[in-house]
Every structure is written in structure tokens, then in C-alpha cells.
Amino acid sequence: MMTSWQDAAAKKREEISALIPKEWRVGSLPSLKEQIDVTEYVKQYLSEEELSITESDAEKIVEKTTSGAWTAEKVTRAFCHRAALAHQLLNCLHEIFFDAAIADAKQLDAYLAEHKKPLGPLHGLPISLKDQFHVKDVETTMGYVGWIGTFEGKKGTGKEKVFESEMVRELRASGAVLYCKTSVPHTLMSGETVNNIIEYTTNPRNRNLSSGGSSGGEGALIGIRGSPVGFGTDIGGSIRIPAAFNGLYGLRPSTGRLPYEGMSNSMDGQNTVLSVVGPLGTTAGSLRLVSKALLAQQPWLHDPFVHEIPWRSEEEDKIQQLLQFVGESVPQEKKLSFGVMHTDGVVTPTAPIRRAIELVTKALEAAGHETFAWSPPSHKVLNDTGFRSWVFDGGRNVREAFALSGEPMAPQVQLYQNEMKEFTATDIAETNVAMRALKKEYMEYWNSTAKETSTGRPVDAIISPLAPWPAARREKYKYYGYSTWVNALDYTAVVFPVTNVDKAVDVKSSDFKAIDEKDQEIQDDYDPEIYDGAHVSLQLVGRRLQEEKILAVADASPIEVKGRAAQADPYEGYVFAYFTNNTRAGEQIYLAASNGNNALSWKELNNGQPIITSTQGTKGLRDPFLIRSPDGGKFFLIATDLSIGSGTSWGDAVRKGSLHLEIWESTDLKNWGTQRHVKVSPDTAGNTWAPEAYYDPTIEAYVVFWASSLYAEDDLDHTGSTYHRMLYATTKDFVTFSDTQVWQDAGMSRIDSTVIKEGDTFYRFTKDEGASGTGCSDIIQEQSSSLRATLESWTQDAACIGKNAGTANVEGPTVFKSNPGDVNGEKFYLFVDEYTGRGYIPLETSDISKPQWKVSATYTLPKSPRHGTVIPVTAAELASLTSTTSVASKRTREAPKIQARDSPVLPGYYADPNIFVSGKTYYIYATTDGTPGWGGNTFYCWSSPDLVTWTRPETPFLTLNGTSGNVPWAVGNAWAPTIIERDGKFYFYFSGQNAEYNTKTIGAAVAESPEGPWVAQEKAFILNNEAIKTNQAIDPAAFQDPTTGKYYLFWGNGVPLYAEFEDDMLSFKNGTLKSISGLTDFREGIFMNYREGIFHLTYSIDDTRSVDYRVGYATSSSIDGPWTVHGVILQKDESKGILATGHSSIIQVPGTDDWYIAYHRFAIPNGNGTERETTIDRVYFDDEGLIKPVVPTLESVAPELVPAY
Questions:
Q1: Catalytic residue (one of 1084, 1102, 1171, 1177)
Q2: CATH 3.30.470.30 correct for 910-1179
Q3: Which CATH architecture has domain 571-882?
Q4: How far is 1191 from 813, CA to CA, in rounded Å?
Q5: Marked catalytic residue, from 170, 572, 692, 912
Q6: Identical fold at 4-24+40-566 and 910-1179?
Q7: Is the model's pTM score more than 0.85?
Q8: 1084 in catalytic set
Q9: Residue numbers for the site described as Important for catalytic activity, responsible for pKa modulation of the active site Glu and correct orientation of both the proton donor and substrate (predicted)?
Q10: Cα–Cα distance, 854 to 839 (Å, whole number)
Q11: Per-residue model confidence as pLDDT tens digits over 91-120
Q12: Plot region of 1196 (φ>0 → left; ψ -120 to 50 → alpha; else → beta)
């Protein structure tokens, strides 16, 4: 039975949840194991408009609401929605008052409409508050069950749900919208947020970790972007800890700078180390905005503890003047000087914190500033003295609060677990005297640094850890010294984000020597696996009441600090994003990493499987482009929304294609966020192809450009004549885009532009499809001093680049410069897509201003790369990517532990098997696999007496190698054969790459025996220019209808076709070509069987590079249909490591009712779409004569001889 405090807590918890509107409730929440990081997960529940609003910082929001571009109501609803989602995922809210907030927002909109001006500087800005602020109509529990239904634990005061804190009044007067109060640990004295009402508040980036405390609800809510900015309090790090743990900015001002009047608190009356109120937000500018707005309300007239110090813009100006110079150009007197605290001598920071310090130090030095090791007076003595103030009353205040309900104290509240004596007045006085002496000693040390700096000033600020680890694990916050020293000295401090934990880099040191047991314990609690991806932050510390100065440094230099920190290490490797082919599996995003600092040597990531797949638009992805943000902390990937593999014709792709871009974000190139499907092209466009982007610092935005065919506004069906132009739009966040502009209009088609800047010159490479003045449809090179200049301002440097380098037709260029130290030397590379042949080919030149593009002499690219991007990465980033395959869409397979009899039945890589029986012998003819782009060019004849023992001759019987082979018309891609016997002759049909038509066609060979010798026909006989077309003329399947004796061939990709053979078996009877309708999800690999009055049609679904490749099944009483689809009869079994089971053929053992299916799957282990193996399993029929679902096995089948018949 629950006790009374449990009843009260449960009731309050239910009341909070009940205030979330039903339409905002998530039906099934992911478990911690299923979803550790929910920062991207939450976005799936938000509209594009809500995402645009909630991903904006406070300054942008106010810019929109004060101008009327966004209504306060719309903004408030968006943040209420995201906050509701945040609470369901993180337990971060104590009080919800969305309805009141929306009503307030409507009043603000009415005010703006009537007065034509905003109410105040925060007009329409949603602000969240820590549950210490009193807000009318809602409670303040501060995490105590005993405070429910009271005013700070007291009943009948008349203040319940009526009284408001002074800052609440001032925020409302400034135009802010208040909508929720956030969770705190009961007592407020913990770096983890936990209480008996909402229980534990987790970290949105990593729910294994704490969100911090005591303003942990604020940290979690803002961290998941459920609030743009909020207010917390700080007596020992309670603003800075949550800000750091959640990758935010957080300001701890000095006492008396912002109003605390009328707020609830623990240990009220203790004035030795005072709690202060301050903001947390996503940017330093957000903190400045709200702090300045509050001081404009003259809080010193309403709070006797606030100093009469208005916002001092002149202090900001001083910093701006010092920061106008960068690097070696910084005059001595203009430098900033920083003390860097590597350790406080008590506890050693863990590996990621140490790396962050090094990154920031290098960044500041690279910007021309000075850094010095900070070796101040003892922090242990300072902190121990400050700690005394927290227990002056022996813990009586908090114990009385717990006694109100009888609730237990959470183990995280370490300070008050044991009985303590109360300090006497003399004890308190002695503590205050000691604190004064320590402050004086620290001041003198700071002043003494003027002797070390080149400026003659003491250091301007200190760079310090905020905690020994990036975030605390549950019940493991064991050391507060890195945050509390700032409170003891009453210094100003701002937390700022630096990087993220990388388990491959931030490893434990094997030679670490602990200072003592506590130091060792802290190191033992750090686990790179658990912390991987967590935010890593530091704090910037200034002297007392230096809020303007420290915020100005944080606001102006974090672009320097954070951005340069990410790039402090040199680039020593590359990452390559690409798609592979015009199939559904190929139209996904793949990644490869360079082998060291070598732009011409690559290895595939994620075992050659895609890292990103699409769930929106056409669900096809092509032409991926990667770009690193200017601050270095984020990567954006944009791609074309196009699926040729799903059956879209190129004509429809141009006229009726997508107007959207597909967009993802990542901080590490391994873990990618939620897909965004963003419309950028106008309705007059027919498509949006090959997007790229370039960051333009002059407008502080990305210029995103792509190709579109444009039609007249009255040509709604897009049937008129047109050509491709290059368009562009700008964006700061890849969420909201400017209006689209025309960038290149040459009067004929241009596509696939890519840009690089060298010195002051932009070099642009474009596929000039119209051959405007160049004599060839090829890549051209142009230059300009302005990125967005119109066509006439660009000068052409080179044309026919591919042709002159000796390639076939090319498109999809990507350009980049080699890294310093690349093993191939200093070069510029232009990868071009030879789409009719080899795929990507690297071209190189040593001088981009006077280019001599040529194909690189030797190179090893990933398998089958098509139009993509290469970007440079640091050694640490490269190591992180190549040391693990923990990327999106990762699938790990281990070799099965079952002892297989003979599975696969064919040794090596073979796919698309056609199983056949003749006489007393079984035969398999298959695609020879294991080559990039399915480029095999040979066919072998495999034979077996019993389905288990298979052999083949040493040499292939057909080689598709043009005049060098024995199939004159074909130059590779020997795919998916079939065989049939008629009148004592054997006919072998296959697809191959036709050199004359530059496409896949189907040809034939004839023999007197199934083992040959075979004579190939001079010409292919299915060219895909027939009256009915399929996407590709591939995958033939020959069949004799036993009910009529007629012979047929089935084939097709995307569209299944069949036709009746003439007697020569090398041509079709007129008027017999037909398509088959109704085959759900038909992809390819059609095959036909007949049994007891039923035609059985099997076919492949999805793409051969997909793990979900599988076999569909339909039946009919006639070869001409109609067909009844029965779903899937063969699919993967991940428990056995069996994936991508498809492209099958089925035989009946003559004289029996024994049936077998031959099919391919990914080779076990670690195979993929070009490393497939052939196996055989049994086929059984049910009582209705239908094929039962096939059970894929690792054992394959038992021997069965062909009986005499």
C-alpha cells in the first residue's frame, strides 16, 4: 500500500501529465535501449513550421515576433508542443500552463496590431522558469512533496497561486511569454535532478546521463529545444552544470546583478555564498538579450539586493575592439589573455574535458590571443570554506521540508544525508572572515598575472572545466569543486559548448596516476562507450560583475573558440558521400573514408551498406552533398529527392519531379538526425537536382544551389519546352530558406555545379548539357570574385574537361583540394561521374587557375560510387569513423554458429541463380558476383548429380568483353541468365551491357547440350525500344506453358513483360508482347512454374543491395492472368544472419513432387549487394496447391538424385 506522500506525489505527477493536450501525447515511448539520444527523435512529431520556430534562437524569434513575421501565438504553441514532448521523454516539467501562455500570446499579438510596436524587447518570446519562481495560478513545489498545495510548505498564507516573483513581473513587462516551470532536485543542492514527484530528469543527448542540477529541468528542456531560453539559479554550479551537460550557454552573474526577490529557496537567510539567478540558452546572444531586457526594467528599484548597474554596452564595445584582429595581425595591446586551468590539483579532468581544453587553447592562440597556465591559491581550501555556508543550520531547513510529507531524501542529495550540528554565530563570523581573506588572496594572484601578459593587463578571463566529466552518470556526481570555486569568489562565469565525446579519441589513459582515491574514483566512473556523443563544455570565468565583458567574449569568440577548436588539428583524411546506381538500393547514401591522408585510396564504411535512407518524398536519394558548419561543430548533408529505381522515367523526373531537398544534420558524421523534407523550388519547377552549398561569411549564411527545369506559370502540366537552370537560395540553418533566385541561365541546360574558393577567387565546375559555345556536352570550369554573381560575371577557364581527359560522357563533378601532407602531394581533385561506364573517376591538376585536368594514374575508389562529395576531416574524426561502424542504418552480422551441410551450394560469390534439370543432372547458371557495380562479365555452367555436390569447368562458357570475348555485342554486366530446352536444343538467355546502345539489352546463345559449347548470337534481340518498355531489359526467364505447349520469355525491371517465342526461340511472335499488372512491389527477377492447374509466378521485391530483398508470389489459372498476389514467400532471417534473400528460380525433380528453390543472399558473414552467394532450400505446397512460405536455412538441402523416369 502506498503511503500518503506517495499518493500525493503520484497525484501531482498525473496532474502534470493531464495538462498535456491529447494530440501532443506520444502513444509509445522508446525505451532507453531503443533511443539513447532523443534530440533528433523528437522532431518527427513536429511540423516543418514548428521545427523552423523551435530550432531558432531567442534573438531570431524576437526579430520575427517584433516585426510581425511570426505571431506570438504561433511561436508559443510551437514551444508548448515541443515542451510537452520533452516532458514525456525526459521528465523535465513541474508545472504546465500552456493555455494561459497562449492567451497571453494572443494579447501580445493584439497589442502589436493596435499599437504598431512591440510591448517590450522580449515581445512574444517564450521563456521557461526553474521551479523556484512563483507564477500566478500554478504551484511552486521546488521538488518537495510537502510543498504541494501550499506556499513554500505553509498553508493558508493567501499567497498560494497568487503571489509572483519580481523577475516574473519584469519578464511579463518586457513582453515575454511564460508557459512552464521546470524540474529541480529537492533541496536544490545536487548536480542531478531527481525528486519524488517527477522522479529523474535525463539528458536528451544521452539518457544514460544526468541533465545536471539543480536547474536540470531547464537544461533538459532547452537542450531538446523545448525552450529557446530560460532562467535558473546557481549557488554551486546550478546554472552552469545543466548548461554544460546539455551543450548550452549559461550565465552565472555575480550576486546583486539580476533580481532574486520573491523566489523560493533552500537555506534562505544564509548570505555567505548567495544563490544567484541567471539565464540558460542555445546561444550567448540569447543570454545577452534577456539580461539586458531585465536590467532595462530597473530591478534595483524593486529588489534591495540588486546593484544599480544598467547594461553597459561600452564594456561590450571594448571587447569588440579587441577582437577585430585575428591571428598574427593582432597588435600586442589588442590581444586577450586567458588563464587556462588544466586541473585544480584535487581531481583530474577526464579525457574529453582535457581534449576540450586543448582545443580551446589552440583556437585562442591561433586567433592571436595569449594563454597561460592558471596556478592559483588552493581551490581545496577555498571550496571547503565555501561549503560550510551550506550547512550553517545543520541541514534543519531541508529536513523540515522533508518532514512535511515524510518522503525520503534522494541519495543524490549527499550533503544532508547525515545529522550535523548547527553553526553558532561565532562559527559563521569566522567562516565569513576566512572567506574574505581567501577572496583577497585570489584577487592578488589574478592581479599578479599582469607581469606575465604582453598586454600589461592581468588575464582577461579564465578557461576552466565545469566538472571533471562531460556529464554525470546517475548517482555518480562525486565532485563539485570545478563549479563551486566560482560561487565562493562570486565571479561571473559563462559556460560554452566545445565539442562532443568521441569514444575512439577520448580513451582512458593507461598510465594515469591518481592524486588520491577520490581522483581514481572519478576516472573509474568515466566510460568512453557510455559517454560517446555527449556534449563537452567549459566555462569562461571573469571577475565580479563583469557580465557584459564575459558575455561579449563568449558571444564574439565562441565562433573562434568553437569553430577553431573543431579545426585546431590539421585535416589528415577525407570522407566521401555518394550514391551507387539507379536502383532503390543504390539510391541511398553511402560513406567511405580515406586510407589515411590519401585522396585516392578509399574504404567503405558500414560494411558497404547505406548510412542514410529516405522515408519521405520519393524515398530515393541521389547526389549527396556534405558541408561542415563554419563553427566546425556540425555537418549538414543535403541530397536530391529522386527514385529512378522505383520506376520513375527520366521524362517524369524532369517534368514532375520533387521540389524538395532532403536534409540531415550530424555532429560526428556517424549519427544522423531526423530527415527534413524542405521545399525550395518554385511550383513552376519540374525538379530539384544535385544540391550543393557554400557558406558565405559576408552574409553569414549558406548559399544552396541546384538545377531545376522551369516552366511557364500557365503550363501547369509542365508539357512545354524547357531546359535546366541553376537556382539558389540562402539559409542559416537548413530549416528556413530565402526565396529562390536564378543563378545560371545560359539559354540551354546546365546542371551539377560545384564550387571551390582558392585565394579570393571562386572556381565553379558545371555540367554544360547544352554545349553552349564549347562543342561538347561536358564539364566546364569558370571563375569569379563573387559567388552569387550572374552568368556574365563568370569567366570560362576550361571546357570539355572530361573529353580532354579521355573519359566518356561525364557529369556530377565534385571538387576539393588535397590536405597538407597528402601522400600524393598538393593537388586539386575533380571527381567526375562517367555515368555510362566506370562511375566516378578522379581527375587532378596542380594549378587550378591554369588547369591541366587528367585522370589520376592510380586510384582505389569505393565500389560503384556515383555523384557525391569529398570533404576533409581531422585524424581524430577519421579514426572515429574507421574504428567503428556505429552509423545510421548499421547492420552487424556475425558468422552463424550452426554447422551448415553445404550452404552456400556454390563456393564464392554467385547471384541470380537459374536452376535447371536435364537428364540425370542438375545445373545452375548464375551471375558471377563480387565485382564493383555488378561488373562481372562471365558465365559458368555448374552441375550436380544430387543438389549438394557442385562443380564447374575452369573456364567460362561465355565472356562478355566485346570483341575480346565471345559475345560481340556485350561489354560486361553479365547478369541473371535463364535456360530452356526445345526440340533437343538448349537456349540460353542473358542480359549484358550493350556497347552500341549504351544500355542493358538481352541476347541469346544456343547449344546442343546444357554444358555447351555455346554459340552466342551476333546481336541482342531485346533492346528495350519495343512497343512496351521496362526500366531495364534484364532478368530473362524462359518458360513453356504445359497446357498449350507454347514457349515464352519473361523479363523486366520495374515493369514486368512477357512475349511468346517464334519457333526459332530467338524472336517473338507479333502482337504477343504484354505487360503484367497487379504484382505488388514488383522489382525484378521474375520466374514461372506450373503445378496442378496453377501457374506460380515468383519475383523479387526491393533491391538486391537491400537487406530486405525478398521474393513475392502470385498465382493464376492462365498464363495471361489475372494474377492473385499472396504476399512474400521468402525473406531474411536476421537471427541466422541470412539477409537479402531474392532472385530465385524453382524446379521440380522429374518424376516426383519434390520442389526446390535456388536463390541468392548476402554472403555470410559481411556480404553485401555485390557479394552474394547462392543456396538452395525446399519448397512445399499447402492443401490448396499454393506455395508455403519458404524457410531459409543455413544447412541447405539433403542430397536427392534425379530418379529414372
A1: 1084
A2: no
A3: 5 Propeller (2.115)
A4: 46
A5: 912
A6: no
A7: no
A8: yes
A9: 1035
A10: 16
A11: 999 999 999 999 999 999 999 999 999 999
A12: left
